[in-house]
Design brief:
By secondary structure, the protein is mainly α. The protein has one domain. Helix content is about 55%, strand content about 0%. It contains 4 helices and no strands. α1 packs antiparallel against α2. The longest helix is centred in the N-terminal third of the chain and has 16 residues. The chain is elongated. The mean pLDDT is about 90.
């Protein structure tokens, strides 16, 4: 089984948070999360437990992907210069 991405975890936590806010009974919330996100009931319970400590939903960010590029040296210098803080 693949590990959850940060985006997946945020979505699962937000779903758990929403169920807790609606006062969904814990066993029902656990089964719903497990079914909706294809989790074990134990993992769904962990998300519910973590969501009890939230004051508001967590931000869902876009997934990141690693990439490797080869670019001409001049282009690399320009890119590095663009990263430098203006000052």
């Amino acid at each position: 089984m693949a590990r959850s991405t940060k985006t997946n975890k945020a979505r699962q936590l937000n779903a758990a948070f929403a169920m807790l806010r609606r006062n969904t009974p814990l066993p029902e919330a656990m089964q719903c999360l497990a079914r909706e996100f294809d989790l074990s009931e134990r993992q769904a319970y962990r998300y519910l437990a973590e969501a009890t400590h939230l004051k508001r939903p967590v931000e869902v960010c876009e997934d990141t992907v690693p990439i490797t590029l080869k670019v001409p040296a001049g282009t690399a210098r320009l890119l590095r210069r663009m990263q430098e803080p203006a000052g």
